[in-house]
Amino acid sequence: MSEKKKDFKIPSPWRHKRYVVYSIATIVSLVLPWIVINGNHFFLLSFDKMKLHLAFVQFDMQQLYLMPFLLMLLFLGIFGMTVVGGRVFCGWVCPQTVFRVIYRDLIETKILKLRKRIKNKQQEPDMSKPENKVKKVIAVLIWSVLAVIAGADFIWYFIPPEDFFKYLANPMDHTTTFGFVLGVAFFLIYDIVFLKENFCIYVCPYSRVQSVLYDDHTVMALYNEHRGGHIYEGHEKKFTKQKEIQVEEPQAECTTCESCVTVCPTHIDIRQGLQLECINCLECVDACTTVMGKLGKPSLVTWSSDYEIVDQKGKTKYFRPKVLAYIALLVGISIILGVMGSKKEHMLLNINKETRLYSTKALPDGKVRVDNSFVFLLQNTEHNKMKFYFDVIPPKGMKGKIIIVKPAKPFMATPGAKKKKIVTLRTTDVLVDDKRKDTIIPITIHAYALDANGSKSTKISVYRKSTFTYPKESVLKAAK
Q1: Claim: this prediction has a pTM higher than 0.85
Q2: So where are the chain's domains?
Q3: Looking at the chain, which terminus has fewer C-beta neighbours within 10 angstroms, N or C?
Q4: pLDDT digit string (tens) for 358-380?
Q5: Going by CATH, does the domain composed of 347-479 fall within 2.60.40.10?
Q6: Distance of CA 198 to CAs 82, 108, 129, 142, Å?
Q7: Residues with pLDDT less than 50, the chain
């Protein structure tokens, strides 16, 4: 046994790996709103300016058709993660878990020593002691400051930091913004300090969804009854001491030290089997690894699957049809999102025809002038003032030409503002010779910005389909 103990190497705790993930997630969430490329954020859904920034590309609210794809990526990603690794999102990424670790393990335990040990999450601090009451108040005050920062960080994904701090100069003019920040902060104070893990157990709907997504190969924290022994029979606890287990199961290795129980943040006994309260934080795995490692044995609680631990049918299959289907969906949606995002138009243009179909006027040379008027609603989605103009592209094979007579020259459009222009198209040529009815001629409007040299911009250029109505022969004769 001594040689076995000597040769056995205790694995590094999952807790340390989680702390690294928590740190990375916290840093990314705090820093990301501050990163700006060409005036665009990585993600910003601004209801104030009616803009969506995605991957440092700016989209107008009319282009929010991208949001459903983002939501699909989010939910399919979490569901796919659950199929593979159980509630790994809850234990490793969820803000609720991260915040509880910061408050309970860092502030209460490490900094203020209000709790005795990180490994005992079942025992609440003794609040009958005056010094503990003072420490509790200090802990709440520290967390309150962090909660306000968290609330502000959340709002930065909807109001950019550069605007947020400008608003601080006149907070009463932005009561909704700062009221929302304080509302988030108060919720986090109540949630993290008072509601605690009850949020995960009773409030969060994800725990109810997980059971539908699990299968025999889903990886989760599992107690190996084949090695440790059967502590529970159904929901009833059979044994509390190791010698009691070994009467029926002499090979049972569980020491009944209860380390896996006392360390659990959601107050469950992992030896009872799969429970919806388990968030896959793997604290129980670390606890059992430490105890059994001292005996020169591997942990009785491992991050594995029913297929491998409970049924003992073989190794866990990670790339099974269900997982491959999720991967295919995520890749497919990502490609669609990328293609649609790459087709972003750098100006917005809506064309509406006026109620009057056309107007006619006889010219001294005997020709008839035919005008069609339109209302163009244009928006410059760039960050700088730019000059815009339009061209008319007639259908192939059409005799004669259609020109723009109004506006007569390029016009300036400021960023973000909608500009309404009355546009008049004109022809003096005989485009169609129809005695019975007016003719609808399909045309294409090319709207573009002018670059610094006064040439057409290849980047800011859009095309819209429209029509030009040309009158029948009797109307042309009446106009002469």
Answers
A1: no
A2: 1-34+86-313, 347-479
A3: N
A4: 999 999 888 999 999 999 998 88
A5: yes
A6: 21, 18, 25, 22
A7: 1-4
